[in-house]
Amino acid sequence: MTDHDTRTSRETRTGQGHRADHDPRTGHDTILVTGATGNTGSRIVPRLTALGHPVRAAARRAPELPGARAVRFDWDDPATHDAALRGVARIYLVPPVGAPDPAAVMLPFLERARTAGARRAVLLSSSALPAGGPMVGQVHAALPGLFEEWAVLRPSWFMQNFTDHHLHAESIRTHGVIRSATGEGRVGFIDADDIAAVAVRALTDEPPPAHDLVLTGPQALSYDDIAATLTTVTGRPVHHRPLTYEQLRDRLAAGLPAEFAALLAGLDRAIADGAEDRVTDTVERLTGRPPRSFRAFAEEHGHAVGDSVAGS
């Protein structure tokens, strides 16, 4: 895109007279971060503001984040969408949590965003979901037709699943157990801080990086490996308890829609078959530093589980 094309894109107006805001003091465009209080969004906002970018932080409850303008945003409430989009040039997209068909609410929003003058979209997806695949894979497939500038972040499983509010972390804290249907399959677990670092580059680099970005940590590890590392680092016993696909599906279905529970259990089965046994150089290539290892992550955050593991 030429400089003239960039200026023309920034000046695109809607029927309501809105345009993408460009801060003359910093030379930066306004960036909307959805899911601003989540695992990645809460890490992206301070990185962007530290670089001088004007940021609109969006969540169901307007978050108070230093340096950012807060706005209430709910995927299921279109009445919140216009205020979130007003004057925005770039968007970080976190799909609605637990939605079996996120495209149903995300695609109308993205059409509205394009009309309002947004020109770049960066979507958080998953390494397990290719373009055109289930769930957010449908949104991935639609992005090239909506925005000239776009990227899809496809991270592997988060390391934070073992320390925050994920089912694995709760099971570790309560029972000292990780339950999965992954067998001996391995995963390139990644720290959310590394995902955030790549997201900032995808939102701000000129020109934007390659479109489809598969993100992993430096090692592919089994859940047995994870349990052993947590045991060593925390000094508390943690065990991996293998389940069958059917056992995991039924366990998840106790608290989730049956279709969604089956999909999640299917992802574990794919891991058992080797689908996630890989590492990529994307984090280091885009940020200039290697991704954090799980051992280093556990040494910093293991206290979140170690002090409350069953039997301690």
Structure description:
The chain is an alpha/beta fold and 312 residues long. The chain is built from 13 helices and 13 strands. The strands form four sheets. Strands 5-4-3-6-7-8-11 form a seven-stranded parallel sheet, sandwiched between helices. Strands 1-2 form a two-stranded antiparallel ribbon. Helix 2 packs across helix 7. The N and C termini lie far apart (59 Å). The relative contact order is 0.12. The N terminus is likely disordered.
- Helix count from the secondary structure assignment: 13
Percentage of helical residues?
25-40%
Strand content: 15-25%
The averaged pLDDT comes out at 89
SSE order, one letter for each helix or strand = HEEEHEEHEHEHEHEEHEEHEHHHHH
- The parts where pLDDT drops under 50 for at least 5 residues are 1-18
Shape: globular
Measured distance between first and last alpha carbons: 59 Å
- What structural class should be given to the helix and strand makeup? alpha/beta
| Biggest β-sheet description | 7 strands, parallel
Side-by-side strand order of the widest sheet = 5-4-3-6-7-8-11
What is the number of strand segments? Answer: 13
Q: Give me the Rg, rounded.
A: 20 Å
How would you sum up this structure in a few lines?
By secondary structure, the protein is of the alpha/beta class.
Attribute tags:
13 helices, 312 residues, seven-stranded parallel sheet, two-stranded antiparallel sheet, disordered N terminus, single chain, alpha/beta
What layout of secondary structure does this protein have?
Layout: H1 3-10, E1 22-23, E2 28-29, E3 31-33, H2 41-50, E4 55-59, E5 69-72, H3 81-85, E6 90-93, H4 103-115, E7 120-124, H5 137-146, E8 149-155, H6 167-175, E9 177-180, E10 186-187, H7 192-204, E11 212-215, E12 221-222, H8 223-234, E13 239-242, H9 245-253, H10 258-272, H11 282-287, H12 294-301, H13 303-306
Parallel strand pairs: 3-4, 3-6, 4-5, 6-7, 7-8, 8-11, 9-13
Antiparallel strand pairs: 1-2, 10-12
Helix pairs in contact: 2-7, 4-5, 8-12, 9-10
